[in-house]
From TrEMBL:
Name of the protein described by the UniProt record: Diguanylate cyclase
PROSITE patterns: RENAL_DIPEPTIDASE_1, RENAL_DIPEPTIDASE_2
UniProt cross-references to InterPro entries, sorted A to Z: Dipep_AS, Metal_Hydrolase, Pept_M19
Listed PANTHER family: DIPEPTIDASE (PTHR10443:SF12), MICROSOMAL DIPEPTIDASE (PTHR10443)
Length: 410
């Protein structure tokens, strides 16, 4: 479905493994666990295929790399700074655009702490070098790039960073990142930084420097994300921004009381500004009292809650998946990713994977199947699988000077 022009390229095939870089055995891009397809009728499956073919499909948050098969090698794998994109898996994903969040805080090429400027630039440049050597995935810098990718059987890759620690106190680093192709950035990850507070901090909000950074991102055309920011920083950012903002991967705290999910007032404030909240599926996040075992049903309960709260025009999906053992990676990186702080104190049933939402190749076909099965209209499905995101991007990424409205125009 939504067939892509994939020619069999594998990451870094222009180099010689073992000579130009250390070779690791990586996972296959098919499922590691029993495959699950949301059950639909033959007619419904035909409708699913048509919806994916006719509409722009965007994931607002993923990590599309292939993990090592042996997770004991994961930190060493990260030290080499090469993420291997799952091109084959993406070719069957149904996606026309993916907001890829790179290594982020797990880019530990020069530092065990992550989030350093050199690590982020190294990570970004290496990934874009690989992308430049193939033609199915293109850089997504404008909404026209996304439309062109759709038309040409390609996928637009939007380089995104989950937190802004690496800019330190230098606003111009935002310009540099924009120049390197970054089009979406979070304010803070779990730990606070010079812009604002992360979800580990119970108090504090956007700093004076953070407000300057928000204004600079507005001027540049970088979409702003508050998924990992604490509640006050999220609200402050929404207020400070002249443009709508994203919550690229979260859910509703009203359904599961952890800091990783957003309270109603933050979701409402995001929507009131014209923004969009995307529902995530990283293991053990969007679970609910009705569905304590994390799977597509609990994930979609968060979706429907947010739709009922703020309307269909302000909700989409950012599954936050990867090709590999996601739960195993969380265990390997629990300290670096501050996972204990994000889980809260509520007991939950642990799973090995999220059924129906295991990797970037499986998520959106199953999401659309679920929506079709539950009676959503073609119009509403088109909105939540990409239309709502495109609406925000048309406003956020817009550069008035390119449209003849800048101070140089007459």
């Amino acid at each position: 479905m939504n067939k892509k022009n994939y020619r069999g390229y594998q990451s870094y095939q222009y180099l010689e493994p073992g000579v130009d870089f250390k070779s690791f055995e990586l996972v296959k891009e098919t499922t590691l666990f029993p495959e699950y397809i949301v059950p639909v009728t033959t007619d419904e499956e035909a409708r699913v295929k048509r919806l994916l073919e006719e509409n722009i499909v965007i994931s607002l948050h993923e990590h599309t790399f292939k993990a090592p098969a042996n997770l004991n090698e994961f930190l060493e794998f990260r030290r080499w700074g090469r993420d291997f994109t799952g091109y084959e898996g993406l070719s069957r994903s149904g996606l026309d655009c993916v907001f890829d969040n790179l290594m982020n805080g797990t880019a530990m090429i020069t530092s065990r702490g992550g989030w350093k400027w050199d690590d982020i630039i190294y990570d970004l440049g290496m990934r874009l070098s690989d992308i430049a050597h193939q033609d199915m995935v293109i850089m997504g810098l404008t909404t026209d790039d996304i439309r062109r990718a759709k038309q040409n059987g390609q996928i637009a890759f939007v380089a995104s960073i989950e937190g802004a620690s690496m800019i330190e106190n230098e606003l111009d680093r935002l310009d540099i990142l924009y120049g390197f192709g970054v089009r979406c950035m979070g304010i803070a990850y779990s730990e606070g930084n010079s812009l604002g507070m992360g979800l580990k901090e119970a108090s504090g909000g956007l700093t004076a420097f953070g407000k300057q950074a928000v204004q600079r991102m507005n001027k540049l055309g970088i979409a702003i994300d508050v998924s990992h920011s604490n509640d006050q920083t999220s609200l402050d950012t929404i207020e400070a921004s002249d443009k709508p903002i994203f919550i690229t991967h979260a859910g509703a705290r009203a359904l599961w009381n952890t800091n990783r999910l957003k309270p109603d007032d933050v979701i409402k404030a995001c929507a009131a500004k014209g923004g969009v909240v995307a529902i995530e599926a990283a293991p053990h996040t969007t679970i609910t009292q009705n569905h304590p075992r994390h799977n597509i049903e609990s994930f979609m309960e968060h979706f429907e809650y947010c739709v009922n709260l703020v309307g269909i025009d302000h909700v989409t999906f950012g599954p936050d998946t990867l090709f590999g053992d996601h739960v195993g990676i969380h265990k390997a990186l629990s300290e670096a990713l501050s996972l204990s702080a994000s889980k809260g104190n509520m007991p939950y049933e642990k799973v090995d994977y999220v059924q129906g939402l295991e990797n970037p190749g499986d998520c959106f076909p199953n999401i659309v199947r679920w929506l079709v099965k539950h009676g959503y209209s073609d119009q509403d499905i088109a909105k939540v699988i990409g239309g709502n995101t495109m609406r925000v991007l048309e406003e956020v990424w817009c550069n008035p000077r390119l449209q003849g409205h800048g101070p140089q125009s007459k």
